User: What shape does this take?
Amino acid sequence: MLPRSRSVSHWRQGPPEKNARSESFSEMLDLPPAITFYWMIVAFFLFAAILSKLVLQPTQAVLAERAHRTSGALAEATRMQAEARALKDELAATLDQARHAGSAAGEQIRREAEATERRMLEEARAEAARKIEEVRVRVEKESAEARTVLHEQSGALAQLAAEKILGRPVTAS
Assistant: This one.
Protein backbone atom coordinates (compact mmCIF):
# COMPACT_ATOMS: atom_id res chain seq x y z
CA MET A 1 0.00 0.00 0.00
CA LEU A 2 1.18 3.48 -0.83
CA PRO A 3 2.07 5.85 1.96
CA ARG A 4 -0.41 8.61 2.54
CA SER A 5 1.92 11.28 1.14
CA ARG A 6 1.81 9.64 -2.30
CA SER A 7 -1.91 9.17 -2.56
CA VAL A 8 -4.15 10.76 -5.11
CA SER A 9 -5.48 13.21 -2.59
CA HIS A 10 -2.00 14.59 -2.20
CA TRP A 11 -1.95 15.53 -5.88
CA ARG A 12 -5.34 17.19 -5.71
CA GLN A 13 -4.19 19.69 -3.17
CA GLY A 14 -2.18 21.56 -5.75
CA PRO A 15 1.51 22.29 -5.92
CA PRO A 16 3.27 22.40 -2.59
CA GLU A 17 5.24 25.42 -1.48
CA LYS A 18 8.89 25.74 -2.45
CA ASN A 19 10.25 24.38 0.80
CA ALA A 20 7.64 21.70 0.90
CA ARG A 21 8.45 20.82 -2.68
CA SER A 22 11.90 19.49 -1.85
CA GLU A 23 10.41 17.46 1.01
CA SER A 24 7.69 15.90 -1.16
CA PHE A 25 10.25 15.08 -3.90
CA SER A 26 12.38 13.10 -1.48
CA GLU A 27 9.25 11.37 -0.22
CA MET A 28 8.43 10.23 -3.79
CA LEU A 29 11.86 8.76 -4.45
CA ASP A 30 12.79 5.77 -2.37
CA LEU A 31 16.48 5.08 -2.19
CA PRO A 32 17.51 2.34 -2.71
CA PRO A 33 14.65 1.37 -5.09
CA ALA A 34 12.32 -1.46 -4.27
CA ILE A 35 12.90 -4.94 -5.75
CA THR A 36 10.00 -4.47 -8.22
CA PHE A 37 12.04 -1.85 -10.00
CA TYR A 38 14.74 -4.44 -10.72
CA TRP A 39 12.12 -6.96 -11.82
CA MET A 40 10.69 -4.37 -14.22
CA ILE A 41 14.13 -3.74 -15.74
CA VAL A 42 14.69 -7.51 -16.17
CA ALA A 43 11.20 -7.92 -17.67
CA PHE A 44 11.82 -5.02 -20.06
CA PHE A 45 15.08 -6.47 -21.38
CA LEU A 46 13.56 -9.97 -21.54
CA PHE A 47 10.57 -8.62 -23.48
CA ALA A 48 12.92 -6.62 -25.77
CA ALA A 49 15.01 -9.76 -26.46
CA ILE A 50 11.90 -11.85 -27.24
CA LEU A 51 10.47 -9.10 -29.47
CA SER A 52 13.83 -8.78 -31.23
CA LYS A 53 13.93 -12.52 -31.95
CA LEU A 54 10.29 -12.89 -32.96
CA VAL A 55 9.53 -9.60 -34.73
CA LEU A 56 12.51 -7.34 -35.36
CA GLN A 57 14.98 -9.84 -36.86
CA PRO A 58 12.46 -11.49 -39.27
CA THR A 59 11.19 -8.06 -40.31
CA GLN A 60 14.74 -6.87 -40.96
CA ALA A 61 15.45 -10.05 -42.94
CA VAL A 62 12.33 -9.49 -45.08
CA LEU A 63 13.27 -5.85 -45.62
CA ALA A 64 16.85 -6.80 -46.53
CA GLU A 65 15.57 -9.42 -49.00
CA ARG A 66 13.17 -6.89 -50.49
CA ALA A 67 15.97 -4.32 -50.81
CA HIS A 68 18.18 -6.96 -52.45
CA ARG A 69 15.42 -7.92 -54.93
CA THR A 70 14.64 -4.27 -55.60
CA SER A 71 18.26 -3.40 -56.25
CA GLY A 72 18.54 -6.50 -58.46
CA ALA A 73 15.39 -5.51 -60.33
CA LEU A 74 16.67 -1.94 -60.67
CA ALA A 75 19.98 -3.22 -62.03
CA GLU A 76 18.08 -5.49 -64.45
CA ALA A 77 15.84 -2.59 -65.51
CA THR A 78 18.88 -0.36 -66.04
CA ARG A 79 20.56 -3.11 -68.08
CA MET A 80 17.40 -3.60 -70.14
CA GLN A 81 17.10 0.14 -70.72
CA ALA A 82 20.71 0.30 -71.91
CA GLU A 83 20.04 -2.69 -74.18
CA ALA A 84 16.88 -1.03 -75.51
CA ARG A 85 18.82 2.18 -76.18
CA ALA A 86 21.50 0.21 -78.02
CA LEU A 87 18.85 -1.57 -80.10
CA LYS A 88 17.14 1.75 -80.79
CA ASP A 89 20.43 3.29 -81.93
CA GLU A 90 21.16 0.24 -84.08
CA LEU A 91 17.68 0.43 -85.61
CA ALA A 92 18.10 4.16 -86.26
CA ALA A 93 21.46 3.52 -87.94
CA THR A 94 19.95 0.71 -90.04
CA LEU A 95 17.02 2.91 -91.03
CA ASP A 96 19.36 5.76 -91.88
CA GLN A 97 21.50 3.42 -93.97
CA ALA A 98 18.37 2.06 -95.69
CA ARG A 99 17.19 5.62 -96.36
CA HIS A 100 20.52 6.51 -97.93
CA ALA A 101 20.54 3.30 -99.96
CA GLY A 102 16.93 3.95 -101.01
CA SER A 103 17.65 7.53 -102.00
CA ALA A 104 20.77 6.41 -103.89
CA ALA A 105 18.75 3.72 -105.65
CA GLY A 106 16.00 6.25 -106.34
CA GLU A 107 18.54 8.69 -107.69
CA GLN A 108 20.01 5.96 -109.91
CA ILE A 109 16.54 5.02 -111.17
CA ARG A 110 15.76 8.69 -111.82
CA ARG A 111 19.00 9.12 -113.78
CA GLU A 112 18.28 5.97 -115.79
CA ALA A 113 14.72 7.18 -116.46
CA GLU A 114 16.03 10.56 -117.59
CA ALA A 115 18.55 8.86 -119.90
CA THR A 116 15.81 6.60 -121.30
CA GLU A 117 13.56 9.63 -121.77
CA ARG A 118 16.32 11.52 -123.61
CA ARG A 119 17.07 8.48 -125.79
CA MET A 120 13.37 8.01 -126.59
CA LEU A 121 12.98 11.73 -127.37
CA GLU A 122 16.00 11.60 -129.68
CA GLU A 123 14.62 8.51 -131.39
CA ALA A 124 11.20 10.18 -131.74
CA ARG A 125 12.79 13.35 -133.12
CA ALA A 126 14.87 11.32 -135.57
CA GLU A 127 11.79 9.35 -136.62
CA ALA A 128 9.77 12.57 -137.01
CA ALA A 129 12.59 14.17 -139.04
CA ARG A 130 12.82 11.06 -141.22
CA LYS A 131 9.05 11.05 -141.80
CA ILE A 132 9.04 14.79 -142.49
CA GLU A 133 11.84 14.29 -145.01
CA GLU A 134 9.93 11.41 -146.63
CA VAL A 135 6.78 13.54 -146.85
CA ARG A 136 8.78 16.48 -148.22
CA VAL A 137 10.38 14.28 -150.87
CA ARG A 138 7.03 12.74 -151.79
CA VAL A 139 5.37 16.20 -151.93
CA GLU A 140 8.19 17.48 -154.17
CA LYS A 141 7.88 14.44 -156.40
CA GLU A 142 4.09 14.76 -156.61
CA SER A 143 4.37 18.51 -157.25
CA ALA A 144 6.89 17.90 -160.02
CA GLU A 145 4.59 15.30 -161.53
CA ALA A 146 1.61 17.63 -161.18
CA ARG A 147 3.60 20.46 -162.79
CA THR A 148 4.56 18.19 -165.66
CA VAL A 149 0.95 17.06 -166.12
CA LEU A 150 -0.29 20.63 -165.82
CA HIS A 151 2.38 21.83 -168.21
CA GLU A 152 1.33 19.14 -170.70
CA GLN A 153 -2.34 19.86 -170.20
CA SER A 154 -1.87 23.64 -170.33
CA GLY A 155 -1.03 23.50 -174.01
CA ALA A 156 -4.08 21.36 -174.76
CA LEU A 157 -6.29 23.61 -172.63
CA ALA A 158 -4.97 26.72 -174.32
CA GLN A 159 -5.72 25.19 -177.70
CA LEU A 160 -9.20 24.18 -176.58
CA ALA A 161 -9.85 27.65 -175.17
CA ALA A 162 -8.65 29.27 -178.37
CA GLU A 163 -10.92 27.01 -180.44
CA LYS A 164 -13.90 27.90 -178.28
CA ILE A 165 -13.16 31.59 -178.42
CA LEU A 166 -12.40 31.66 -182.13
CA GLY A 167 -15.00 29.14 -183.06
CA ARG A 168 -12.68 27.27 -185.36
CA PRO A 169 -10.01 24.60 -184.94
CA VAL A 170 -6.53 25.84 -183.96
CA THR A 171 -3.29 23.90 -184.52
CA ALA A 172 -0.36 24.07 -182.17
CA SER A 173 2.62 25.74 -183.65
User: Anything to note?
Assistant: The longest helix spans residues 35-166. The chain has three helices and no strands. The chain has one domain: 32-166.
